[in-house]
Amino acid sequence: MAEGLLRHAAPDIFDAHSAGSQPVGLNPRAVAVLKEMGVDISAHYSKSLDKFRGERFDYVITVCDESLETQCPVFLGDVGQTLHVPFDDPAGAHGDEDEILYTFRRVRDEISEWITSFAMHEAHSLQRHKV
Questions:
Q1: Overall pTM > 0.85
Q2: Could you report the per-residue pLDDT of 91-126, keeping only the tens digit for each?
Q3: Which residue ranges form the domains of the chain, and what is each CATH number?
């Protein structure tokens, strides 16, 4: 969701990519809740960190929830700055479909709010950032 939201919010400022240590595929609920905002990620796909090995990034932003017993991915490439912004993993939501979609929407909105703030902060820079 973060890649799609960042690409949508600030395409002239950021060249956004997402990857994980254990890519599991595109979640159809993420596609659906982003579509509600006019953001189409249906052509996106899960990528491994290995895909970006050796590339230079201005920012690497980890979004994993540290309270879970999963490990946040570590990017070993050339990085200008690393930021950690923990969000709940909506894929782990429980309950009926309405409750699960509520969680996806809540996390979507939290990520969107953070991205808006981050993009506004970086907008003063005339250079394009690879994230």
A1: yes
A2: 999 999 999 999 999 999 999 999 999 988 877 765
A3: 2-125 (3.40.50.2300)
